[in-house]
Amino acid sequence: MRLELSTPISPPEIVEYDVAARAARRVWAQPPPRGFEPSRYVCGRLWATAADGARVPMSVLYRRDGGGGGGGGALSSAAVSARPALLYGYGAYGECSDPSWCPERLAVVDSGMLHAIAHVRGGGERGAEWHAAGARARKPNSFGDLVACAEELARSGLADPGAIALEGRSAGGLLVGAAANMAPHLFRAVLASVPFLDAAGTLQDAALPLSP
């Protein structure tokens, strides 16, 4: 089989894995940008606790800016001061928001911000049950999960609690719109791209069976 691998600080590569021999070899790799140095960045996972006790994972990326060690590793606010944060979410249709290589995210981080992906219920990151727990009548769980993620970013000391922005597209626009209305004090800005905000009107359109 062939696998495509990447991380927020590792460009994509394709690895061919021989199942019988249990051996892998790299068959292709995208070269990193000129001057890119993974050790300048920290990427890892934070966990937020939702109001109902559910543990919600977040993928977090920021520049080390003076800390020690190599790329990746444990997240820590000890070596960095709180910084503005951009919190992204989608959480619909069982889709996974993978923490993969993305030059646009690196540009955000290089500007001095922290970037986080909230893997809220409604997505598929933790399996079919995770999707079902944020769909239909349980959709409000997605919104509460995003609020909990913003609160955890502030509580951790990694993000400036007065400078957290939200980003969501399409169904993610519904997510960030709802979260901003639930907890407007948490967010300095909201970027809602092609947002699905007219939920009541859209659900009445029988030609759109995926939306419900």
Summarize the structure.
The protein has 212 residues and is α/β, with parallel strands linked by helices. It has 5 helices and 9 strands, in the order ββββββαβααβαβα. The protein has one domain (35-203): Alpha/Beta hydrolase fold, catalytic domain (Rossmann fold, 3-Layer(aba) Sandwich), CATH 3.40.50.
The fraction of residues in strands falls at 25-35%
Low-confidence stretches: 66-71
Ends distance: 36 Å
CATH superfamily: Alpha/Beta hydrolase fold, catalytic domain
Taking all Cα atoms into account, the compactness measure Rg is 18 Å
Look up the CATH topology.
Rossmann fold
- Sheet with the most strands, sense and barrel status: 6 strands, mixed
- Number of beta strands: 9
Number of domains: 1
Count the helices. How many? 5
CATH class bucket: Alpha Beta
Please, what is the average pLDDT?
A: 93
Order of the strands making up the biggest sheet = 4-5-7-6-8-9
Helix content: 10-25%
Tell me the structural class.
alpha/beta
Shape: globular
Q: What is the H/E order?
A: EEEEEEHEHHEHEH
Structure, described:
The chain is 22% helix and 32% strand. It is of the alpha/beta class. The chain has a single domain, classed as Rossmann fold. The protein has a six-stranded mixed β-sheet, with helices on both faces. α3 packs across α4. The protein is globular.
